[in-house]
Automatic annotation (TrEMBL):
Transmembrane among keywords: yes
Record keywords: Membrane, Transmembrane, Transmembrane helix
The protein's name: Putative membrane protein
Organism: Caulobacter vibrioides OR37
TM segment ranges: 95-114
Length: 149
C-alpha cells in the first residue's frame, strides 16, 4: 500500500509521468497481472498513449502559457492518474484502497509541489525548475515501481 501512496505523491508534480511509468512496468510484466488495473495499463495502446501524453506534459510544463497544476483540469488529471496508478500497485484485494491512497496523495501533493515550484521559479526561472522537477518525478516514479511485483 505504501507504493500506492508514493506513486500518488509523485503524480502531484506530473500527472502523467507516474502513470506512464506504471503502465510501462505493467506492459513489461513487472507487475502482477492478477490485478485488473494492471491488465488495463499493460495494453499496448494505453502504454504508448500514456508515454506520449507524459512526454507532452514534460515539454509543455516549461512553457509560460502552461496552466497551473491546481486548476480543476490539473487536479482531475492528477486524481485519475494517481488513482489508477495506485490501484495498479496495490494487491488485488486492496484495489480500491490503493486507488484512494494514490488519488488522495496526488491531489494533496499537487498543492505542496505547486507552492514549492512557485517559490523556486521566482529564484531560478521556469525551465530550470521544471527540469529539476521532471528529474525528481521520473526518478521517484521509477524507484516506486522497481520491484513492485
Amino acid at each position: 500500500m505504501l507504493r500506492s501512496l508514493l506513486i500518488g505523491l509523485s503524480a502531484g508534480s506530473r500527472a502523467l509521468t507516474p502513470l506512464a511509468t506504471v503502465s510501462e512496468a505493467a506492459r513489461s510484466g513487472q507487475l502482477s497481472d492478477a490485478n485488473p488495473a494492471v491488465r488495463l495499463l499493460a495494453h499496448p495502446l494505453f502504454s504508448a498513449g500514456s508515454k506520449a501524453l507524459a512526454a507532452g506534459e514534460l515539454w509543455g510544463d516549461k512553457l509560460k502559457s502552461a496552466p497551473d497544476r491546481i486548476v480543476p483540469a490539473g487536479i482531475a488529471a492528477r486524481l485519475l492518474a494517481g488513482g489508477l496508478s495506485g490501484a495498479a500497485l496495490a494487491p488485488r484485494k486492496h484495489l480500491l484502497l490503493g486507488a484512494a491512497l494514490g488519488a488522495g496523495a496526488a491531489v494533496a501533493a499537487s498543492y505542496v509541489t505547486f507552492d514549492a515550484r512557485m517559490r523556486a521559479l521566482r529564484r531560478w526561472g521556469q525551465t530550470s525548475t521544471g527540469l529539476v522537477e521532471d528529474a525528481l518525478t521520473v526518478g521517484a516514479a521509477q524507484w516506486v515501481v522497481r520491484g513492485a511485483k
